[in-house]
Specification:
Blueprint: H1 2-7, H2 13-23, H3 32-44, H4 46-51, H5 70-87, H6 93-109, H7 122-139, H8 146-164, H9 167-170, H10 176-191, H11 202-210, H12 230-238, H13 243-261, H14 272-295, H15 299-318, H16 336-352, H17 356-381, H18 389-416, H19 423-436, H20 441-445, H21 461-486, H22 491-505, H23 508-511, H24 523-538, H25 542-553, H26 565-569, H27 578-595, H28 598-603, H29 608-634, H30 649-670, H31 679-691, H32 699-713
Helix pairs in contact: 2-5, 3-5, 3-6, 5-7, 6-8, 7-8, 7-10, 8-10, 10-13, 12-14, 13-15, 14-15, 15-17, 16-17, 17-18, 17-19, 18-21, 19-22, 22-24, 24-27, 25-27, 25-29, 27-30, 29-30, 29-31, 30-32, 31-32
Length: 744
């Protein structure tokens, strides 16, 4: 140990750092208090040695400081940092409290080390602040609250003095040590008011809360003199010339907002400084953040500014109608012009930013604006106030403007939700979908397309019908983009999104129950509930039926390949979640069957002919895709696969999805009593039997095709034309085969 301690005070800084780290493994818990006190005692004895040569001007580079043992001081401080951060955290509260009490008394005698005015060595000042930081973090887990006030008062005094210095005026050249000092000063200063728990302090914070000494509750009187002006210091540091200071301040402000969001903001009454900051954020945070965004040049600071903007507005949206204070400014209470202005700034920033993390944050920030713009558009559609011609023209122009923003946002989300996008952008897209509120707009706009809304409550469609229909299309597109993300290959995205999506269709009375969403529903169940929710809202709208059919048709688009199916198995660019795709395909086809009922035709009795034509058109599209795939592989004799090419993953998914869509549409058409013998219906099945003969060795495809044949045999005589008897064996045909087997 003596050798290691001598090494920790050498001239080479790397040796000092390594030796201080090595010291932690040599000190036992029994010897720890004595070693720490010995180091601090030696440090305090340097006061008399250094006081005679201490200089009074800032960061002077004169020869007066050459005799000051800065390497010795720095090495001792590094030893204290390592022992406090590693060894002291494993001690019980009583021993820890005694060590901190003795240590702060010794460090208070050499507080000049943390003053740039008296100790002109930025690395030494920085390390002294870190020692006090570790002590403050440890003191929060102790039973006695007296020690923490002594540590905080000393740390506040020294860091406040350092923050007054302007880094751009200290030296004529850039000194990274000065920047590090001022960054540490800002971080240590704001940590005096609260400190976010981490892995090392998690157990200590748990003990402090158990003892009734949570971080927020310890924000009481700091000094007996003038109170610390936290609000003024916060505003000053946000516009500091050094980006390191701005970044440290922004990080603390983001933590402050997250603590408020977690429900701890009620404890701010115990600290007048924190209460003042809370009042300042309510009124000035929105404007301040937008000003900083226009001036900031550092990409890290820009990202944290955007994260603060997103967290603040999302927090206020969640508190609307309950805890929002009067006078609070956020996007949700702005008019359309102000919101469009912010949207334009975010969009222009998105077009020039190249950092992936910043782009992901921008996508989430855009969702905040879209939530407001979507609400304004929905309100204008349901606005039943009579207007003049000029007022209607102005309203229509504004609706088109709002719709254009929503359409642009939808395209961005659809772009970044693709499987080829990085996982952080897909995660941002999933989070943005929930924050945008577009999923909830289905309940608002859906009643316009069915007879559930009373006639007196229906808006006039003379001017807004087209906008309402286009808006409904955008809402459905957002829902289907969300469904695509629910089958994402990343389990974290799927589970988090599924947990949030179920809140969009859960009855409102369940939202207030505590623990209602603590246990997430399985993703597959959320997919089923999502389609049930949409069918209950848009079930009487023919366009929703088209969305379901289009999803099945595009489930696995057929592209004629070179025939190397083995290579495609190992293609990493192909999404391997085929079961989820097949599940969604079965859900869509099942809902297509349910929607085409007598009640559906009764609601749309005036459009019965066009609905049937639409069914014929979709059935033809599925038929064409099946025929194209079958004929291409029938002529390709070089394709071989174990058990038949129908067992290949790409071939099976495409065939089953399109054949199931063909089956569902045929079932809808043949369910009508007035259906007569249609030669096209018969010839389509005959052609499919020949084209798909190569794939009927797969039992699932065979059994589904047999259901198609049996469905048509009920109306027409096909036994003489369909030749699939050679495949009708006991081991391939199943009794009571359910084409929607994944929904059981």
């Amino acid at each position: 140990m003596p050798f290691i301690r001598r090494c920790s005070t050498q001239r080479n800084m790397r040796i000092r750092v390594l030796a201080s780290r090595a010291l932690t493994g040599l000190v036992s818990n029994e010897k720890l208090p004595g070693v720490i006190v010995d180091i601090a005692t030696e440090l305090s004895c340097l006061e008399n040695h250094c006081s005679g040569i201490a200089i009074s001007h800032k960061f002077s580079s004169t020869n007066e400081a050459q005799h000051t043992p800065f390497n010795l001081i720095h090495g001792m401080l590094l030893q204290l940092c390592s022992l406090l951060d590693t060894n002291c955290r494993n001690l019980v509260d009583f021993s820890k409290d005694q060590i901190l009490s003795d240590l702060i008394q010794l460090l208070a005698k050499c507080s000049w080390i943390g003053s740039p005015k008296w100790c002109p060595c930025p690395p030494v000042n920085t390390t002294f602040f870190r020692v006090l930081d570790h002590m403050l973090s440890l003191a929060r887990g102790c039973r006695s609250g007296e020690t923490i006030f002594h540590i905080r008062n000393l740390l506040l005094e020294l860091t406040a003095e350092c923050l007054v210095l302007d880094g751009s005026c200290v030296l004529p050249y850039y000194d990274p040590a000065v920047s590090e000092l001022r960054e540490q000063s800002a971080s240590s200063y704001f940590s005096c008011f609260f400190q976010e728990s981490n892995k090392k302090t998690g157990e200590n914070n748990h003990l402090s809360q158990k003892n009734g000494l949570s971080d927020i509750n310890l924000l009481a009187p700091l000094t007996l003199g003038a109170p610390c002006q936290l609000q003024e210091k916060l505003v000053c540091c946000l516009s500091d010339s050094l980006y390191e200071v701005r970044l440290a301040t922004l990080k603390w402000l983001l933590k402050f907002l997250r603590i408020a969001e977690s429900g701890c903001h009620g404890h701010y009454n115990s600290s007048s400084e924190m209460a003042a900051v809370q009042q300042w954020t309510d009124v000035n945070l929105q404007d301040t953040i937008m000003k900083l965004l226009s001036l900031e040049k550092n990409h890290k600071c820009t990202r944290y500014i955007l994260r603060i903007f997103y967290s603040w507005n999302l927090q206020q949206y969640n508190q609307v109608g309950s805890e929002t204070n009067l006078g609070t400014k956020f996007v949700g209470v702005m008019d359309s012009d102000s919101t469009l202005q912010i949207w334009g700034r975010l969009l222009s920033l998105y077009n020039i930013v190249r950092h992936a993390k910043t782009r992901g944050t921008l996508i989430c920030c855009m969702a905040v604006c879209i939530k407001r713009l979507g609400g304004l558009l929905a309100n204008s559609i349901f606005d039943g106030i009579e207007k003049t011609i000029n007022e209607r023209l102005v309203q229509l122009e504004r609706q088109n403007q709002l719709y254009g923003c929503i359409c642009m946002y939808n395209k961005l989300i659809e772009l970044h939700s693709g499987s080829s996008e990085p996982v952080n952008l897909r995660n941002a897209a999933a989070e943005s979908i929930i924050a945008s509120g577009m999923l909830e707009q289905a309940e608002v706009i859906g009643p316009l397309f069915c007879n559930k809304m009373p006639a007196e409550s229906r808006p006039s469609f003379s001017d807004t019908k087209e906008i309402a229909i286009m808006f409904a299309h955008q809402v459905l597109k957002m829902w289907f983009t969300c469904v695509r993300l629910l089958e994402d290959e990343d389990d974290g995205i799927r589970q988090k999104l599924a947990l949030n999506v179920q809140k969009c269709f859960t009855p409102r009375q369940l939202l207030g129950r505590s623990g209602a969403f603590n246990v997430p529903t399985q993703v597959e169940k959320v997919l089923i509930l999502s389609f049930e929710h949409l069918s209950s809202i848009f079930g009487h709208w023919i366009e929703y039926f088209n969305y379901l059919a289009q999803w099945v048709h595009d489930m696995e688009k057929y592209e004629k390949s070179a025939g190397d199916l083995v290579r495609r198995v190992f293609d990493k660019e192909i999404d391997n979640h085929h079961e989820e795709k097949l599940l969604i395909c079965q859900i869509c086809c099942l809902h297509m069957e349910k929607l085409f009922t007598s009640s559906f035709l009764a609601v749309n009795s005036t459009e019965e002919d066009s609905i049937k034509k639409n069914l014929y058109a979709w059935r033809t599209r599925f038929f064409t895709q099946l025929m194209t795939f079958g004929e291409d592989h029938m002529t390709n004799e070089d394709v071989f696969w174990i058990g038949g090419v129908g067992n290949h993953k790409d071939a099976f998914l495409l065939l089953y999805a399109n054949l199931l869509g063909f089956y569902a549409l045929s079932k809808c058409l043949l369910s009508e009593d007035d259906i007569t013998s249609d030669p096209e219906l018969v010839s389509d099945v005959v052609k499919l039997a020949k084209a798909l003969s190569l794939f009927l060795r797969n039992p699932l495809i065979l059994n589904l095709f047999c259901l198609v044949v049996e469905l048509h045999e009920r109306k027409f005589n096909l036994s003489a034309d369909i030749s699939i008897l050679k495949y009708r064996t006991d081991d391939l045909l199943w009794d009571c085969f359910d084409p929607y087997f994944l929904l059981k």
